[in-house]
Amino acid sequence: MLAVQGDVREHEQALARLGVRTTRVRRPDEIAAVDGLVLPGGESTTQIRLLRTFELLEPLRERIAGGLPVLGTCAGMILLADRILDGAPGQQTVGGLDVTVRRNAFGRQVDSFEGDVEVRGLDSRVHGVFIRAPWVEDAGAGVEVLARVDAGPAAGRIVAVRQGHLMATSFHPEVGTDARVHALFCDLAGAKTSEER
Ligand code: GLN
Question: Which Gene Ontology terms of cellular component type are present (predicted)?
Fold first, then answer.
């Protein structure tokens, strides 16, 4: 777990439900030691600033380039994106995922909402909690779309993607007790869950 800011505990609990061992990453040597990383939701401008302060940004970019499996949720999706729209002035990202994300995309009136989403690879819908969430405005050819909003004004918008060892969701799969999105990530990361041990 990247633990500079955001909802670290909820992700730890979701992974614990799967029997996956987690550690918190705040130092460069800790990045070197993990087999996979979750970038939690929170505030992307704060997170990128703290990544710089803690000298984690370059080591993280290097590990992503080297194939580290990463799950980014909400602000974490923004961090993983190569391009960002409606970011804060000069806002940078970690990058790696060939997408353009629109920050706070769902608009001011509907800051936050919940809705069920069909996620590719799961046999029934996931309850999606969206909190000032981004969406994927554009995805490169190598990016697999895992979920789109299927009703309402944002219908058709991409809210979950995967590209090789990288996965990102606009919504918060760590909220509640359904850990299936985390399980998908563990499959991709090759992590051992308790069922497989
Ligand atoms: N709007 C936030 C940002 O830009 C993301 C919100 C979230 O992670 N819940 O960083």
Answer: cytosol; glutaminase complex
Residue 185 C-alpha to ligand 1 middle, in angstroms?
20
Count up the domains in the chain and report the number: 1
Report the distance separating Cα 5 and Cα 149, nearest Å.
27
Q: Is 196 a catalytic residue?
A: no
Residue 3 counted as domain residue? no
Whether residue 1 lies inside any domain: the answer is no
pLDDT averages per 10-residue partition of the chain, 197 residues: 97 96 97 97 98 98 98 98 97 98 82 91 96 97 97 92 98 95 95 72
Is residue 116 included in any domain, yes or no? yes
* pTM of the predicted protein model: 0.96
Q: How many whole angstroms separate alpha carbon 60 and alpha carbon 62?
A: 5
Atom from ligand 1 closest to the CA of residue 41: 8
> From the centroid of its chain, how far is CA 108?
22
Per DSSP, the three-state class of 139 is: strand
Catalytic residue among 11, 12, 165, 174: 174
Domain region containing 30:
8-196
Pocket-forming residues, ligand 1, beta carbon under 6 Å: 41-44, 74-75, 78, 103-104, 131-132
Of 11, 12, 30, 172, the catalytic one is 172
Closest-CA residue to 76 (of 153, 160, 157): 160
ipTM of predicted assembly, 2 dp: 0.95
Could you confirm whether 174 is annotated as catalytic?
yes
Distance 116 CA to ligand 1 centre (A): 20
Q: Does some domain include residue 44?
A: yes
The helix or strand, by DSSP H or E, that contains position 70, with its residue range, turns out to be strand 70-73
